[in-house]
Design goal:
single chain; 280 residues; Peptide Deformylase; two-stranded antiparallel sheet; 6 helices; 22% helix; globular; binds zinc ion; Peptide deformylase; plastid; metal ion binding; Peptide_deformylase; EC 3.5.1.88
Length: 280
Amino acid sequence: MESIIHRLSARLLPLSTSSAGPFVGAPGSGNAARRRLLWRCRRPDGKIISSFDVEGAPSSFLPAGASGSRRQTRAAAGWFLGLGGKKGTALPEIIKAGDPVLHEPARDVDPREIGTERINKIVEDMIQVMRQAPGVGLSAPQIGVPLRIIVLEDTKEYISYADRKEVEAQDRRPFNLLVILNPILKKKGDRTALFFEGCLSVDGFRAVVERHLEVEVTGLDCEGRPIKVDAAGWQARILQHECDHLEGTIYVDRMLPRTFRTVGNLALPLPAGCPKLGPP
Ligand SMILES: [Zn+2]
C-alpha cells in the first residue's frame, strides 16, 4: 500500500509507484498449466527469465523497472548495476492492476518450508521492493509469488512528509518492519473510517475505501514462530489492504464509487453525495 505518503519531496515522484506488469497471461491447456503460465516472468527487454510454479517449483525473480517513470528507470538502473539486492541478483517487479494474477487467491506457505532459502529470498525481495518503491506494505502476489506473505513498515521519515492534520486523522504512527506468513485477519468492533488509499499495483491513482479501525492479525514469523499483531488506525488499514491482496482483492474492488482519481486530483472536493472522510 503506497497511498499513504503523498510525496517524499517535491523532487521525487509521488509514492504512488508501481512498474510494469511482467507476467504472461497466456492461456494454457489446463488450469494448472494456465496458472503456471500466469506466473511466468519477463525481463524489461521482454525475455522470459524464469517461472513460478504454484506447485512448488523454483520461484521467479525478475528485475525491477521497466518503461516509464523516473522511479522505474532508477529501479532498472539498480538492477543492471546489481544494486537491487545481493550483488548481481534481480529484484522482482511489482505487478500492475489489469493483470488477472492479482485476482487469484494466494496459498499458505507450507510450515515445513519456512526458514528455507527459497522463502527467505522471497521475503528479502519483498522488503527490498517495498522500500525501493517506496511503500508501506507489500504482498507476495504483487511480485508474482502466489503465497500468503505480507510485509509492512511505516517510518517517522515517511510520516514526516505527510500532512500533519491528515496523519492525525488517520491515526498514523510509525512501526517497525513486520513480516507475516499465513496471516489471518480478524476485524475488531464495528468502527470504520473512510480515507483515500492507493496501491503499488495501481500506479498514480487513489480512491476512498472504508476500513475497520481495529484489527488483529495472527500468523507466523520468518522462523515459523506464532505472532499476533493488534493494530489500530493506519496500521490496521495497511494490514487489511495487504491481507486483501492474498484473497485476490485490490482496493479498487472495495472503493467507494465515484472516488477513484489521480494523485494530482486528491485535493479536489469529493463528488456530491459522498460521505465525509475520516471516522464517523
Ligand atoms: Zn496494494
